[in-house]
UniProtKB/TrEMBL annotation:
Pfam families: McrBC (PF10117). InterPro entries: McrC. This is Restriction endonuclease. It comes from Patiriisocius marinus.
Length: 425
Protein backbone atom coordinates (compact mmCIF):
# COMPACT_ATOMS: atom_id res chain seq x y z
CA UNK A 1 0.00 0.00 0.00
CA UNK A 2 1.42 3.38 -1.03
CA UNK A 3 0.55 6.20 1.34
CA UNK A 4 0.15 9.82 0.30
CA UNK A 5 3.34 11.76 1.06
CA UNK A 6 1.55 14.81 2.39
CA UNK A 7 -0.05 13.09 5.35
CA UNK A 8 3.49 12.49 6.62
CA UNK A 9 4.66 16.08 6.26
CA UNK A 10 7.14 16.52 9.11
CA UNK A 11 6.64 18.49 12.28
CA UNK A 12 9.12 21.35 12.13
CA UNK A 13 10.80 23.19 15.00
CA UNK A 14 13.80 25.46 15.36
CA UNK A 15 16.86 24.76 17.47
CA UNK A 16 16.22 25.50 21.16
CA UNK A 17 12.43 25.22 20.67
CA UNK A 18 10.33 23.41 23.26
CA UNK A 19 7.47 21.04 22.49
CA UNK A 20 5.14 19.15 24.86
CA UNK A 21 2.08 16.94 24.53
CA UNK A 22 0.20 19.12 27.05
CA UNK A 23 0.72 22.49 28.69
CA UNK A 24 2.40 25.70 27.56
CA UNK A 25 4.34 24.44 24.50
CA UNK A 26 1.89 21.76 23.42
CA UNK A 27 1.51 20.73 19.79
CA UNK A 28 -1.52 18.61 18.78
CA UNK A 29 0.69 16.41 16.55
CA UNK A 30 3.16 15.71 19.36
CA UNK A 31 1.66 13.12 21.70
CA UNK A 32 2.56 11.12 24.79
CA UNK A 33 3.95 8.24 22.69
CA UNK A 34 6.46 10.62 21.10
CA UNK A 35 7.49 11.94 24.50
CA UNK A 36 7.94 8.39 25.82
CA UNK A 37 10.15 7.55 22.83
CA UNK A 38 12.39 10.52 23.63
CA UNK A 39 12.34 9.52 27.29
CA UNK A 40 13.33 5.94 26.43
CA UNK A 41 16.14 7.23 24.18
CA UNK A 42 17.38 9.53 26.97
CA UNK A 43 17.41 6.71 29.53
CA UNK A 44 19.47 4.55 27.13
CA UNK A 45 21.71 7.52 26.21
CA UNK A 46 21.89 9.89 29.22
CA UNK A 47 24.74 11.85 27.63
CA UNK A 48 22.68 12.62 24.51
CA UNK A 49 23.49 16.07 23.19
CA UNK A 50 20.65 17.02 20.85
CA UNK A 51 17.76 17.42 23.34
CA UNK A 52 16.88 17.55 27.01
CA UNK A 53 13.73 16.37 28.76
CA UNK A 54 11.29 18.89 30.22
CA UNK A 55 7.95 18.16 31.90
CA UNK A 56 5.72 16.40 29.32
CA UNK A 57 8.08 17.18 26.46
CA UNK A 58 11.53 18.02 25.15
CA UNK A 59 13.71 21.05 24.51
CA UNK A 60 16.00 20.82 21.50
CA UNK A 61 19.57 22.07 21.74
CA UNK A 62 21.99 23.38 19.11
CA UNK A 63 21.64 20.25 16.98
CA UNK A 64 19.69 20.33 13.71
CA UNK A 65 18.43 17.54 11.49
CA UNK A 66 15.64 14.99 11.70
CA UNK A 67 14.13 12.58 14.21
CA UNK A 68 11.58 9.94 13.25
CA UNK A 69 9.44 8.14 15.84
CA UNK A 70 7.31 5.42 14.29
CA UNK A 71 5.62 7.23 11.39
CA UNK A 72 6.03 10.75 12.83
CA UNK A 73 8.92 12.83 11.52
CA UNK A 74 10.30 15.81 13.43
CA UNK A 75 12.71 18.24 11.77
CA UNK A 76 14.85 20.58 13.86
CA UNK A 77 15.97 23.53 11.74
CA UNK A 78 18.67 26.17 12.20
CA UNK A 79 17.71 29.78 12.76
CA UNK A 80 19.66 33.03 13.02
CA UNK A 81 17.72 36.19 13.75
CA UNK A 82 14.05 36.94 13.32
CA UNK A 83 13.41 35.35 9.93
CA UNK A 84 11.11 32.46 10.82
CA UNK A 85 9.91 30.86 7.56
CA UNK A 86 10.57 27.19 8.11
CA UNK A 87 10.76 26.31 4.41
CA UNK A 88 13.54 28.89 4.03
CA UNK A 89 15.60 27.44 6.89
CA UNK A 90 14.97 23.90 5.64
CA UNK A 91 16.56 24.97 2.35
CA UNK A 92 19.47 26.59 4.21
CA UNK A 93 20.11 23.36 6.12
CA UNK A 94 20.00 21.30 2.91
CA UNK A 95 22.45 23.65 1.15
CA UNK A 96 24.85 23.64 4.12
CA UNK A 97 24.86 19.83 4.27
CA UNK A 98 25.59 19.66 0.54
CA UNK A 99 28.38 22.23 0.79
CA UNK A 100 29.97 20.25 3.64
CA UNK A 101 29.69 16.96 1.70
CA UNK A 102 27.28 15.58 4.30
CA UNK A 103 24.61 15.28 1.63
CA UNK A 104 25.74 14.03 -1.77
CA UNK A 105 22.63 14.36 -3.90
CA UNK A 106 23.35 13.63 -7.57
CA UNK A 107 20.43 15.78 -8.64
CA UNK A 108 20.32 18.66 -6.16
CA UNK A 109 17.38 20.39 -7.85
CA UNK A 110 15.26 17.29 -7.41
CA UNK A 111 16.44 16.97 -3.82
CA UNK A 112 15.27 20.51 -3.05
CA UNK A 113 11.82 19.83 -4.51
CA UNK A 114 11.51 16.48 -2.71
CA UNK A 115 12.00 18.19 0.65
CA UNK A 116 8.90 20.31 0.12
CA UNK A 117 6.64 17.40 1.07
CA UNK A 118 9.04 14.98 2.75
CA UNK A 119 11.72 14.94 5.38
CA UNK A 120 15.49 15.12 5.29
CA UNK A 121 15.48 11.55 6.60
CA UNK A 122 13.63 10.26 3.53
CA UNK A 123 16.09 12.14 1.34
CA UNK A 124 18.96 10.26 3.01
CA UNK A 125 17.02 7.00 2.53
CA UNK A 126 16.64 7.79 -1.17
CA UNK A 127 20.32 8.70 -1.56
CA UNK A 128 21.34 5.41 0.05
CA UNK A 129 19.07 3.41 -2.25
CA UNK A 130 20.43 5.30 -5.28
CA UNK A 131 23.96 4.31 -4.26
CA UNK A 132 22.96 0.65 -3.81
CA UNK A 133 21.25 0.64 -7.23
CA UNK A 134 24.48 1.91 -8.76
CA UNK A 135 26.43 -0.84 -6.99
CA UNK A 136 24.03 -3.48 -8.33
CA UNK A 137 24.41 -2.13 -11.89
CA UNK A 138 28.19 -2.03 -11.55
CA UNK A 139 28.29 -5.53 -10.07
CA UNK A 140 28.45 -6.50 -6.39
CA UNK A 141 31.77 -7.85 -5.20
CA UNK A 142 32.29 -11.39 -3.92
CA UNK A 143 34.55 -12.44 -1.06
CA UNK A 144 35.83 -15.66 0.45
CA UNK A 145 34.35 -16.77 3.75
CA UNK A 146 34.42 -19.88 5.91
CA UNK A 147 31.25 -21.76 6.84
CA UNK A 148 30.52 -24.96 8.77
CA UNK A 149 28.06 -27.03 6.74
CA UNK A 150 26.93 -30.49 5.69
CA UNK A 151 28.32 -31.71 2.35
CA UNK A 152 28.20 -34.88 0.25
CA UNK A 153 31.88 -34.60 -0.65
CA UNK A 154 34.95 -33.94 1.50
CA UNK A 155 36.11 -30.52 0.25
CA UNK A 156 37.38 -28.92 3.45
CA UNK A 157 38.57 -29.68 7.00
CA UNK A 158 36.18 -32.09 8.71
CA UNK A 159 34.64 -30.97 12.00
CA UNK A 160 34.91 -34.20 14.01
CA UNK A 161 32.69 -33.24 16.95
CA UNK A 162 29.87 -32.16 14.61
CA UNK A 163 30.50 -35.18 12.34
CA UNK A 164 30.04 -37.60 15.24
CA UNK A 165 26.98 -35.74 16.56
CA UNK A 166 25.20 -35.45 13.20
CA UNK A 167 26.44 -38.11 10.80
CA UNK A 168 26.79 -41.36 12.74
CA UNK A 169 24.00 -42.90 10.70
CA UNK A 170 24.54 -40.97 7.43
CA UNK A 171 28.05 -42.14 6.53
CA UNK A 172 27.75 -40.50 3.09
CA UNK A 173 27.68 -37.00 4.61
CA UNK A 174 30.54 -34.85 5.87
CA UNK A 175 30.36 -31.98 8.35
CA UNK A 176 33.08 -29.68 7.09
CA UNK A 177 34.45 -26.15 7.34
CA UNK A 178 33.94 -25.06 3.76
CA UNK A 179 35.44 -22.13 1.86
CA UNK A 180 32.77 -20.17 -0.03
CA UNK A 181 33.21 -17.37 -2.58
CA UNK A 182 29.96 -15.40 -2.69
CA UNK A 183 28.20 -12.10 -1.91
CA UNK A 184 27.28 -12.92 1.69
CA UNK A 185 30.00 -10.93 3.42
CA UNK A 186 30.45 -8.18 6.00
CA UNK A 187 29.82 -5.16 3.72
CA UNK A 188 26.66 -6.58 2.17
CA UNK A 189 25.37 -7.59 5.61
CA UNK A 190 25.71 -3.94 6.72
CA UNK A 191 23.90 -2.70 3.61
CA UNK A 192 21.14 -5.28 4.10
CA UNK A 193 20.62 -4.11 7.69
CA UNK A 194 20.26 -0.54 6.39
CA UNK A 195 17.70 -1.72 3.83
CA UNK A 196 15.79 -3.43 6.64
CA UNK A 197 15.71 -0.23 8.75
CA UNK A 198 14.57 1.88 5.79
CA UNK A 199 11.85 -0.69 5.06
CA UNK A 200 10.66 -0.34 8.65
CA UNK A 201 10.52 3.47 8.63
CA UNK A 202 9.21 4.55 5.25
CA UNK A 203 5.87 4.48 3.46
CA UNK A 204 6.84 7.38 1.18
CA UNK A 205 5.96 6.47 -2.40
CA UNK A 206 9.22 7.21 -4.26
CA UNK A 207 11.40 5.71 -1.54
CA UNK A 208 9.19 2.61 -1.26
CA UNK A 209 9.35 2.07 -5.02
CA UNK A 210 13.17 2.24 -5.02
CA UNK A 211 13.28 0.06 -1.92
CA UNK A 212 11.25 -2.71 -3.56
CA UNK A 213 13.53 -2.69 -6.62
CA UNK A 214 16.65 -2.90 -4.45
CA UNK A 215 15.24 -5.67 -2.25
CA UNK A 216 14.39 -7.73 -5.32
CA UNK A 217 17.94 -7.48 -6.70
CA UNK A 218 20.13 -7.41 -3.60
CA UNK A 219 21.42 -10.82 -2.43
CA UNK A 220 20.23 -12.41 0.79
CA UNK A 221 22.77 -12.35 3.59
CA UNK A 222 23.05 -13.36 7.20
CA UNK A 223 21.68 -10.83 9.68
CA UNK A 224 24.17 -8.67 11.57
CA UNK A 225 23.77 -6.59 14.72
CA UNK A 226 25.74 -3.58 13.52
CA UNK A 227 27.94 -1.58 15.91
CA UNK A 228 30.45 1.19 15.22
CA UNK A 229 33.40 -1.22 15.14
CA UNK A 230 31.85 -3.02 12.13
CA UNK A 231 32.57 0.04 9.98
CA UNK A 232 36.15 0.30 11.27
CA UNK A 233 36.79 -3.31 10.22
CA UNK A 234 36.28 -2.49 6.54
CA UNK A 235 39.74 -2.06 5.00
CA UNK A 236 40.52 0.81 2.64
CA UNK A 237 41.03 -0.82 -0.73
CA UNK A 238 40.35 -0.19 -4.40
CA UNK A 239 37.54 -2.79 -4.39
CA UNK A 240 35.72 -0.94 -1.61
CA UNK A 241 35.86 2.60 -3.09
CA UNK A 242 32.50 2.26 -4.95
CA UNK A 243 30.87 1.30 -1.60
CA UNK A 244 32.15 4.36 0.25
CA UNK A 245 29.09 6.64 -0.05
CA UNK A 246 26.59 3.86 0.67
CA UNK A 247 28.56 2.84 3.77
CA UNK A 248 28.79 6.43 5.02
CA UNK A 249 25.01 6.78 4.86
CA UNK A 250 24.61 3.29 6.40
CA UNK A 251 26.77 4.35 9.33
CA UNK A 252 24.71 7.49 9.82
CA UNK A 253 21.44 5.53 9.78
CA UNK A 254 22.34 2.37 11.70
CA UNK A 255 24.31 3.98 14.53
CA UNK A 256 21.46 6.42 15.20
CA UNK A 257 18.64 3.85 15.19
CA UNK A 258 17.04 2.89 18.50
CA UNK A 259 14.39 0.15 18.14
CA UNK A 260 11.49 -0.15 20.56
CA UNK A 261 11.74 -3.81 21.56
CA UNK A 262 8.28 -3.96 23.15
CA UNK A 263 5.91 -2.74 20.43
CA UNK A 264 7.78 -0.97 17.65
CA UNK A 265 5.53 2.09 17.87
CA UNK A 266 8.30 4.07 19.57
CA UNK A 267 11.18 3.08 17.29
CA UNK A 268 13.39 6.17 16.98
CA UNK A 269 16.00 7.21 14.45
CA UNK A 270 17.83 10.53 14.69
CA UNK A 271 20.18 12.14 12.15
CA UNK A 272 21.37 15.25 13.96
CA UNK A 273 24.21 17.67 13.26
CA UNK A 274 25.86 20.07 15.72
CA UNK A 275 25.04 23.49 14.26
CA UNK A 276 28.23 25.03 15.68
CA UNK A 277 30.34 22.47 13.79
CA UNK A 278 28.17 22.64 10.67
CA UNK A 279 28.51 26.45 10.53
CA UNK A 280 32.28 26.18 11.02
CA UNK A 281 32.59 23.53 8.31
CA UNK A 282 30.38 25.50 5.90
CA UNK A 283 32.55 28.61 6.32
CA UNK A 284 35.73 26.52 5.90
CA UNK A 285 34.52 24.83 2.70
CA UNK A 286 33.23 28.15 1.30
CA UNK A 287 36.58 29.86 1.96
CA UNK A 288 38.45 27.03 0.24
CA UNK A 289 36.25 27.26 -2.84
CA UNK A 290 36.57 31.04 -3.00
CA UNK A 291 40.20 31.67 -2.03
CA UNK A 292 42.33 28.56 -2.59
CA UNK A 293 44.13 30.29 -5.49
CA UNK A 294 45.35 33.13 -3.21
CA UNK A 295 45.42 31.59 0.26
CA UNK A 296 46.30 28.40 2.12
CA UNK A 297 43.23 27.66 4.25
CA UNK A 298 43.29 25.11 7.06
CA UNK A 299 40.77 24.05 9.69
CA UNK A 300 41.44 23.32 13.39
CA UNK A 301 45.23 23.61 13.27
CA UNK A 302 46.54 23.41 16.82
CA UNK A 303 49.63 24.74 18.59
CA UNK A 304 50.98 24.12 22.09
CA UNK A 305 50.76 27.08 24.43
CA UNK A 306 51.50 25.67 27.90
CA UNK A 307 53.89 23.02 29.22
CA UNK A 308 53.86 21.00 25.97
CA UNK A 309 50.44 19.62 26.95
CA UNK A 310 47.81 22.33 26.54
CA UNK A 311 46.95 23.38 23.00
CA UNK A 312 44.89 26.07 21.33
CA UNK A 313 43.29 25.63 17.95
CA UNK A 314 41.33 28.28 16.06
CA UNK A 315 38.54 27.15 13.76
CA UNK A 316 40.16 28.42 10.55
CA UNK A 317 43.68 29.66 9.73
CA UNK A 318 44.15 31.61 6.48
CA UNK A 319 47.65 32.28 5.19
CA UNK A 320 48.66 34.18 2.07
CA UNK A 321 50.55 32.11 -0.49
CA UNK A 322 53.72 34.17 0.12
CA UNK A 323 53.38 33.37 3.89
CA UNK A 324 53.65 37.08 4.74
CA UNK A 325 50.19 37.48 6.33
CA UNK A 326 48.12 35.15 8.50
CA UNK A 327 44.46 35.59 9.45
CA UNK A 328 42.28 33.74 11.95
CA UNK A 329 38.52 33.06 11.79
CA UNK A 330 36.66 31.73 14.82
CA UNK A 331 33.02 30.91 14.06
CA UNK A 332 30.19 31.17 16.58
CA UNK A 333 26.66 30.01 15.75
CA UNK A 334 24.78 32.33 18.06
CA UNK A 335 23.01 35.65 17.76
CA UNK A 336 24.77 38.67 19.29
CA UNK A 337 22.30 41.49 19.80
CA UNK A 338 24.43 44.16 21.48
CA UNK A 339 27.24 43.96 18.92
CA UNK A 340 29.89 43.59 21.63
CA UNK A 341 32.38 40.72 21.89
CA UNK A 342 32.75 38.94 25.22
CA UNK A 343 35.94 39.36 27.25
CA UNK A 344 36.77 35.65 27.02
CA UNK A 345 36.38 35.69 23.24
CA UNK A 346 38.68 38.71 22.91
CA UNK A 347 41.32 37.10 25.13
CA UNK A 348 41.08 33.91 23.09
CA UNK A 349 41.54 35.81 19.82
CA UNK A 350 44.48 37.72 21.30
CA UNK A 351 46.15 34.38 22.11
CA UNK A 352 45.51 33.18 18.54
CA UNK A 353 46.99 36.38 17.09
CA UNK A 354 50.08 36.10 19.26
CA UNK A 355 50.68 32.37 18.80
CA UNK A 356 50.13 32.41 15.01
CA UNK A 357 51.90 35.75 14.47
CA UNK A 358 48.59 36.91 13.02
CA UNK A 359 47.81 40.42 11.78
CA UNK A 360 44.05 40.26 11.99
CA UNK A 361 41.45 37.88 13.42
CA UNK A 362 37.70 37.65 13.11
CA UNK A 363 34.91 36.44 15.36
CA UNK A 364 32.23 35.44 12.86
CA UNK A 365 28.57 35.32 13.88
CA UNK A 366 25.46 34.60 11.76
CA UNK A 367 22.92 37.32 11.08
CA UNK A 368 19.85 37.98 8.97
CA UNK A 369 19.94 41.78 9.36
CA UNK A 370 22.49 44.44 8.45
CA UNK A 371 24.54 44.50 11.64
CA UNK A 372 27.56 46.80 11.75
CA UNK A 373 30.99 45.23 12.05
CA UNK A 374 32.94 46.04 15.21
CA UNK A 375 36.68 46.33 14.68
CA UNK A 376 39.24 47.06 17.37
CA UNK A 377 42.99 47.22 17.82
CA UNK A 378 44.71 45.27 20.55
CA UNK A 379 47.22 47.16 22.69
CA UNK A 380 50.63 47.04 21.02
CA UNK A 381 52.95 44.36 22.32
CA UNK A 382 56.52 45.13 23.39
CA UNK A 383 57.75 44.37 19.89
CA UNK A 384 55.59 47.25 18.64
CA UNK A 385 53.57 45.08 16.27
CA UNK A 386 49.92 46.02 15.74
CA UNK A 387 47.18 43.44 15.38
CA UNK A 388 43.41 43.63 15.48
CA UNK A 389 40.22 41.64 15.99
CA UNK A 390 36.96 42.14 14.17
CA UNK A 391 33.48 41.17 15.26
CA UNK A 392 31.77 40.32 11.94
CA UNK A 393 28.22 39.31 11.09
CA UNK A 394 27.74 37.04 8.09
CA UNK A 395 24.46 37.44 6.26
CA UNK A 396 23.19 33.86 6.22
CA UNK A 397 20.35 34.61 3.83
CA UNK A 398 20.40 36.14 0.37
CA UNK A 399 16.69 36.78 -0.02
CA UNK A 400 15.20 33.41 0.88
CA UNK A 401 18.19 31.20 0.09
CA UNK A 402 21.60 30.56 1.62
CA UNK A 403 24.04 33.39 0.93
CA UNK A 404 26.80 31.96 -1.30
CA UNK A 405 29.00 35.10 -1.04
CA UNK A 406 29.96 34.86 2.64
CA UNK A 407 33.50 33.66 1.87
CA UNK A 408 34.09 36.47 -0.64
CA UNK A 409 33.05 39.04 2.00
CA UNK A 410 35.35 37.50 4.65
CA UNK A 411 38.41 37.48 2.38
CA UNK A 412 37.67 41.02 1.20
CA UNK A 413 37.58 42.13 4.84
CA UNK A 414 40.98 40.54 5.52
CA UNK A 415 42.55 42.07 2.43
CA UNK A 416 41.30 45.51 3.53
CA UNK A 417 42.54 44.94 7.09
CA UNK A 418 46.16 44.66 5.90
CA UNK A 419 46.13 48.26 4.72
CA UNK A 420 44.44 49.59 7.86
CA UNK A 421 46.88 47.80 10.19
CA UNK A 422 49.90 49.13 8.31
CA UNK A 423 48.57 52.67 8.82
CA UNK A 424 48.13 52.36 12.60
CA UNK A 425 50.47 54.87 14.33
Amino acid sequence: MIIDNHQYKPLQFFEYDRVTFKGKWSDPKFNKTHFEAFEQYYIANPDTSFFELIPNGVRFKQYVGVVQIGKTTIEVLPKAGRHSEKDVWQGVLLDMLKACHLLTARNTGTAQLRLKSNSLLHLYFELFLNEVELLIKRGLIKKYRRENAQAKSLRGPIQFAKQIANNTIHKERFYINDSLYDKDHHIHQILNETIRVISHFTDEAVVRDKLNRVKALFPETKSLKVVSSDFKKIPLSRKHIPYEKALLISELILLNYRPDIKSGSRDLIALMFDMNKLWEEYILQSLRREGSDRFTIRGQKQKVFWNNSKVIKPDIVIETKDKVNTYIVDTKWKVVNDGKPGDDDLKQMYAYNYRWNCNHSMLLYPSTTDQTKVKGQYFKAEDGKSHSCELAFAQVLDGKTLNKNIAKEILHSFENSKESIENVP
